[in-house]
């Protein structure tokens, strides 16, 4: 034992300490929700109508560098979703005849949606179980955004990096 060490004695006064960080100030208590993701990602939404051709849809997907389009009717109501998978499936079924077909003939009509208050964990679970990668976000009966599995995973990775930094700061002080 070093000679400079002295065991605490009964009459010793506790030295005042200052704490610049605490678990309460650093640990995130809220559960990440779709609205949190949209605050960082934005709400850009690329749509198409059911009467458009697959050829036009493919050009939009390419130009916008996205994997799916939300299909809206003339009143802005959700009609379906057209994904790259829908197009590839149809290309295999009708080789050489797919591009002139309409979006309505090829879109997925039974669209699973989420809301801004849904937790990201529950959304990711639904996407994984349903084996789809895109989910429209509905708010007050209207489609307001589209999120992907990649969006959710990237958000969570950023959140984990932030949490690790906070814990490191808590330890180091």
TrEMBL record:
Please indicate if the UniProt record lists Transport as a keyword. Answer: no
What InterPro entries does the database record attribute to this sequence? CBS_dom (IPR000644), CBS_dom_sf (IPR046342), CBSX3_CBS_dom (IPR044725), Diverse_CBS-Domain (IPR051257)
Q: SUPFAM superfamilies, alphabetically?
A: CBS-domain pair (SSF54631)
Per UniProt, the keywords (alphabetical) are: CBS domain
Any one Pfam family match given in the protein's UniProt record, by short name: CBS
**Top-level taxon in the UniProt lineage:** Bacteria
Where in the sequence does UniProt note compositional bias of the Polar residues kind? Answer: 17-27
- Mind telling me which CDD domains this protein's record contains? CBS_pair_bac_euk (cd04623)
Q: Where is this region: Disordered?
A: 1-27
UniProt keyword annotation of Zinc present: no
Q: List, for all copies, the residue spans of the domain called CBS.
A: 39-98, 107-165
**Gene3D superfamilies assigned to the protein according to its UniProt record, in alphabetical order:** CBS-domain
**Stated name of the protein:** CBS domain-containing protein
Q: Which organism is it from?
A: Aliishimia ponticola
């Amino acid at each position: 034992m070093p000679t400079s060490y002295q065991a605490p004695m009964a009459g010793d006064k506790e030295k005042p300490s200052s704490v610049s960080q605490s678990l309460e100030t650093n640990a995130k208590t809220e559960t990440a929700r779709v609205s949190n993701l949209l605050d960082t990602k934005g709400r850009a939404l690329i749509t198409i109508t059911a009467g458009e051709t697959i050829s036009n849809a493919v050009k939009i997907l390419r130009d916008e560098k996205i994997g799916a389009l939300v299909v809206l009717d003339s009143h802005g109501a959700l009609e379906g979703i057209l994904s790259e998978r829908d197009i590839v499936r149809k290309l295999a079924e009708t080789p050489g005849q797919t591009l002139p077909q309409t979006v309505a003939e090829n879109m997925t009509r039974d669209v699973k949606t989420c809301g801004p208050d849904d937790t990201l964990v529950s959304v990711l679970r639904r996407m994984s179980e349903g084996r789809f990668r895109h989910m429209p976000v509905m708010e007050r009966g209207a489609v307001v955004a589209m999120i992907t599995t990649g969006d959710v995973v990237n958000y969570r990775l950023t959140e984990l990096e932030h949490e690790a930094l906070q814990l490191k700061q808590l330890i180091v002080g």
